[in-house]
Amino acid sequence: MTTWLGLDAGHDDPTTADATAVSLYESLLFHAQLVCVHVVEDHHAMSFRLTDVPSENTVSTLIERGYGVAVHNGSLQRLAGPETLARGALRAALAHRDRREGRALRFPGQRSLRGRYGVSDILAFSAIEEVLPHGTKSVDARGDLQPAFVNGRLVLELP
User: Using only C-alpha atoms, what is the Rg of the chain?
Assistant: First the structure.
């Protein structure tokens, strides 16, 4: 069963939120399928798509570190931590669940994207569902592609 874990530490700076999300993915939440950062009111929160509910130990660790935590898998399972941060965490988890908003830092197929790839290969072998602008033939994928949810789709917008 898919579970969305929202975390909010009140990061003002998107770079700090990005670094924190990747660090959590590389340590505590390494089994996440998709890692996103979201704008929540005037700051940045994180969300993680998991294949199962995080352990009580994991949730306790996050709460001890001061995060607002929201665990959602169809219905709200848990809301914990400081109230304003918990609300932000829930907004991030729901935005991810509904594919409404969020910039993906880690996503399926990302690791294989190193070098220059045709758009058709990116669409076929990663979670990216659309590349903009339309008509783009290839993408220089240095492993730092950050697609975002737009209208329910994971979209890579090139400069």
Answer: 16
Residue in this structure with the two tokens 């990302």, named with its chain if needed: 110
Segment 52-60 shows an average pLDDT of: 95
pLDDT in tens, 66-106: 999 999 998 878 999 999 999 999 999 999 999 999 999 99
pTM: 0.94
**Any idea what the Cα angle at residue 155 is, between residues 151 and 158, rounded to 5°?**
135
Task: Give the model's pLDDT for residue 143.
Answer: 58
Query: Among candidates 25, 74, 73, 75, which has minimal Cα distance to 46?
Result: 25
Domains of the chain with bracketed CATH: 3-106 (3.30.70), 110-157 (no CATH)
Report the range of poorest mean pLDDT among 45-54, 66-75, 89-98, 141-150.
Answer: 141-150
Beta bridge partners of 157: 132
Angle at 97 between CA 27 and CA 126, to 5 degrees: 65
Give the C-alpha distances (Å, rounded to integers) separating 24 from 18, 36, 56, 81, 125: 10, 12, 16, 17, 25
